[in-house]
């Protein structure tokens, strides 16, 4: 049998002389907090999901019932497909997941709870170890990629809503990942430090000041759900930029966000190799756009 099974049907099967194997495919923490009686746990998000199946269900003809969090969460249907591809004959998904099971009044082991974290509020300092800023520069045929150290920073929240913040980058601590260990690494970094690029002797820091943040409608966790406006200062020049970010809380309840955006470096006076300012560059041509990948985590 393939397809769906209701909570009442599954309850009847569990109490029969030949009960099915019931597998909870949610996270181990969710399973530990609350699960169907005698259910096994095999988190479908983990790469070892298929490897654990033979120990849990040795016989491919055994009836297996799969459930996840709810009818709107896809982990159960993904698991059913994995079992069917592995050769199991009689697999069904609990309609509505454990949410429907609880709503129908059937018993569970444990108590349905979720971690409760404080809502971010006030000024939260940035975790400089967990946060990261990476850059990518290109020309017509090649690219360089590296990181830049964070010097300090904070994010401001009002009852969970991001209202502002500031991130200070230490341009004296640039690196190039692709050239790590090569003599060309230090050559490139000296070039980036020079006045042709960032002139770090005079301007050792770059500053990103968030001026506004607005949620993106019809978005959710793991998607671009926040639209940010910020002032970016490089080489003493400040210009506004806009970009989208994916924001949320880490499993430990820390506020975090990731974003990818590009800037036209020439607006900040970084002119070296720009085709807009030099007539003939040949192999010295450098794209005007610099891309940044930013990950910010609060303490």
How would you explain this protein's 3D organization?
With 299 residues, the protein is of the alpha+beta class. The chain has 2 domains: 2-110, Oxidized Rhodanese, domain 1; 122-297, Lipid/polyisoprenoid-binding, YceI-like (Lipocalin, Beta Barrel), CATH 2.40.128.110. It has helices spanning 7-14, 28-33, 49-56, 75-85, 97-103, 183-193, and strands spanning 2-5, 21-24, 34-35, 40-41, 63-67, 90-94, 109-110, 122-125, 132-138, 143-158, 161-176, 205-215, 226-234, 237-249, 255-264, 289-297. Strands 9-10-11-12-13-14-15-16 form an 8-stranded antiparallel beta barrel. A 5-stranded parallel β-sheet has the order 1-6-5-2-4. A hairpin with a 5-residue loop joins strand 14 and strand 15 (255-264). The longest helix is centred in the N-terminal third of the chain and has 11 residues, at 75-85. The chain starts with a strand and ends with a strand. The relative contact order is 0.11. The mean pLDDT is 96.
């Amino acid at each position: 049998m393939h397809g769906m099974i209701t909570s009442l049907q599954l309850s009847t099967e569990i109490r029969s002389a030949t009960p099915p194997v019931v597998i909870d495919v949610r996270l181990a923490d969710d399973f530990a907090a609350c699960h169907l009686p005698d259910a096994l746990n095999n988190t479908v998000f983990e790469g070892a999901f298929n490897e654990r199946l033979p120990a849990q269900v040795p016989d491919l003809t055994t009836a297996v019932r799969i459930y996840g969090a709810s009818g709107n969460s896809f982990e159960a249907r993904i698991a059913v497909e994995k079992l069917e591809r592995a050769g199991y004959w009689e697999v069904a998904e609990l309609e509505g997941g454990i949410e429907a099971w609880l709503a129908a009044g059937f018993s569970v082991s444990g108590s349905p709870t979720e971690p409760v974290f404080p809502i971010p509020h006030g000024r939260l300092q940035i975790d400089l170890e967990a946060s990261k800023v990476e850059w990518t520069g290109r020309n017509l045929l090649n690219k360089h990629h590296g990181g830049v150290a964070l010097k300090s920073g904070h994010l401001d929240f009002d009852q969970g809503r991001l209202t502002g913040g500031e991130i200070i980058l230490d341009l004296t601590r640039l690196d190039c990942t692709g050239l790590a260990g090569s003599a060309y690494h230090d050559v490139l970094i000296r070039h980036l430090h020079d006045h042709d690029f960032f002139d770090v002797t005079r301007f050792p820091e770059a500053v990103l000041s968030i001026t506004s943040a607005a949620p993106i409608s019809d978005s959710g966790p793991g998607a671009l759900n926040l639209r940010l406006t910020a002032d970016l200062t490089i080489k003493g020049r400040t210009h506004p930029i806009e970009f989208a970010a994916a924001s949320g809380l880490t499993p430990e309840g820390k506020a975090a966000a990731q974003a990818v955006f590009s800037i036209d470096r020439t607006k900040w006076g970084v002119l070296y190799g720009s085709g807009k300012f030099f007539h003939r560059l040949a192999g010295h041509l450098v794209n005007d756009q610099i891309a940044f990948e930013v990950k910010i985590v609060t303490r």
